[in-house]
Amino acid sequence: MSERPTVVVIGLGYVGLPLAAALAKSTECWGLDIDARRIAELRDGHDRTGELDGAALQATTLKLTSNPADCPPADFYIVTVPTPVDADNRPDLSIVMAATRTVAGMIDAGRTPIVVYESTVYPGVTEDLCGPEIAKLTGLTCGKDFFLGYSPERINPGDREHTIERITKVVSGQTPDVLDRVAALYDRVTSGGVFRAASIKAAEAAKVIENAQRDINIAFMNEITHIFAGIDLSIWDVLAAARTKWNFLPFQPGLVGGHCIGVDPFYLSHLSEQLGYHPQVILAGRGTNDGMADWVAGQIHARAGKAGKALVLGLTFKENVPDLRNSKVADLVKALTGLGHDVTVHDPMADAAEAVHEYGITLDSGALDRTYDVVALAVSHAAYLDMGDGLAKLVAPGGLFADLKNGIPEFSGAARWTL
Predict the structure, then answer these.
(1) Is a pLDDT exceeding 70 seen at residue 77?
(2) DSSP 324
(3) Helical axes 292-304 vs 329-338, angle rounded to 10°
(4) Which residues are CB-contacts of 155 (< 8 A; sequence separation ≥ 6)?
(5) Which residue among the candidates 29, 71, 142, 260 is catalytic per the annotation?
(6) SS3 58
(7) How far, in Å, CA of 397 to CA of 395, rounded?
(8) Calpha distance 98→177 (Å, rounded)
(9) In whole angstroms, what is the distance from residue 377 CA to residue 404 CA?
(10) What is the pLDDT of residues 37-64, one digit of tens each?
(11) Which of 71, 82, 185, 277 has the greatest number of CB atoms lying within 10 Å of its CB?
């Protein structure tokens, strides 16, 4: 591999932007995103995902564009676009295939480039769908004129410890030589080292089972939360005792959304069903977690005693990030509304226009100036936790504070319920 290879990263979201910025330190790196507004924001030093601050954006040598024609012929094309599911929870590969077609239009066969996928897929997508699509559109031979690699993304939104520069990157390649080249590229960006997977399919599979495993473990926590609620026993009290055992796994109950844990198990189950095997454990876990919002709403309604004015604090899928994708808090809002509550939603991290577009939910920036019959802490943003007992001022006399995250265990001043 040359001293300074040319790399094009396709997709500049939570995954692609930090990767591209890290690669730009030692390569000629181009960041391509079809969202012209996103590119304009990044050029102005603003990252709406919050992964890079203004100083980091100003300092990077990363070249940004929304036009594939601007990108020079590259040694590596890295695809980091989303892979969601559709309304029936089936894998939606339309975005990754559109990115694949974009790559096909940029490839210069004279460089024998490597196309690396980071997007989460089920095993086989890279070699059985993406590679053949590039070959069909270019007339080039996969494994001769261009090669494939896969390195599953491991970005955890909002996590400042496990960043791209520190984590172990799993890498794979179509041939031993390609694997060496992919490994050398990623070794430039992380101090955590690289792990060479036995095959592209093994690397693809590693990603989906990482998130499916977390989903199943959280589903168990949600299920026992249901059970213990029947005897008025807090799951948090149970976990405090259980965690004293050295090999107890520290999972917690909650609303499981986002672009990974709430989605990836469906990619694994899709592959399983294609093979004629019904994946009972994976789908049971998904069913438990997908039903959690309705159950929580029912518990809140029962403890409140009647429908009234309700405030839901937080809409993003996790704390301290602006990401609204697949937020199960939206399901909670819908369920409370269905039970007759007049629901107000507040979130200092979320984009108001995106909340309306994705869920039809209007965020109320002035919501903290009023009182409510029910106040539900759904997302433990630092801004809410810093309020502490001050949240009691939002609860009307005789009202209920529902602390879904056990964020303020010492709360006083109003009736409190937690999972």
Answers:
(1) yes
(2) -
(3) 40
(4) 14, 15, 18, 19, 51, 163, 164
(5) 260
(6) helix
(7) 7
(8) 28
(9) 6
(10) 999 999 999 999 888 988 889 899 999 9
(11) 185
